[in-house]
Amino acid sequence: MVAIQNSSHTLTPETTLRDIIKTIPTEYFEKKPLRAWLSVLFSLTTAALGYASIAFSPWYLLPFAWIFTGTALTGWFVIGHDCGHRSFSNKIWVNDLVGHIAFLPLIFPFHGWRFKHDHHHLHTNKMGEDNAWYPFTVEEYEDGKGLISGVYRLIRTRFWWIGSIIHWANLHFDASLYPERQREQVKFSYRLVIVFAAIAFPVLIYTTGFLGFINYFLMPWLVYHFWMSTFTIVHHTMPDIQFKDKDKWHAATDQLTGTVHCDYPAWVEWLCHDINVHVPHHVSTGIPSYNLRLAHKSLDENWGQYMYKTKFSWELMKDIGDRCHIYDSEKCYKTFAEADAKSV
Hints:
By secondary structure, this protein is mostly helical.
């Protein structure tokens, strides 16, 4: 089992999210246009450097160029992430414009993601509601035997890194999954993405060949999804972090103590605009990414005994992949082996 820094302290039932938010200095919620646009400039520059490295690297260095470029593109997602939470700009149209532009190279529909992600924040780690790495119950696992449970089993073990691709394809291109009031915006975003891909992919293949398509799009895109899968599964999935039924869910407890702060290599955190500093983001989505570290320090000073902290490693991912399989109301998770043994 990997080493973690986690306290057994629990919040009192009377503690609210508002109580926690009040302890964070108000200036950490302020939007700073210069900081926001410098983040955009930084991500544009690093992505350009990444594509240049792909263009000029010998074949044996291409994997490093793909990794750098895909990680830089994850920073584009984080800028769009701020836009989706309206923490990039005070103007909604600016958030929507920048969010769509940031997501286009990732072939990611902005509004579809935004609505589903907002739902995740409202119902973090709540059974039957959360849509991010939601764990199957034994009944759901048994009912889905075949393709559904097979894919679920795959992404819950050593192939967690394709989970973001499944999530992307399954949720964001089907307007029927959204309330009526959201469907036109959802359709606009995924149609825009489809049109972009229909133009960009043939142009890329025509100018650089199919190998160029693999080098400049597919491999960095897979790296981006690796980081998205990794960040998101680690954010709320640990062997001792409980998903809860609706009647036992408590906003302050499950947003503060059900969210994981994980340290990654510094270059990853820089390129990804500190998306790993995730606890303050679940306390309030109004905190811009460039203020997450300051807000985290404040939370650590006031609520550190309740916060879950760990460090990225392959051993951590192995631990999650080996143990966090099927929902269990008493011990958080049971393994596939335990679930399979009971079904025999």
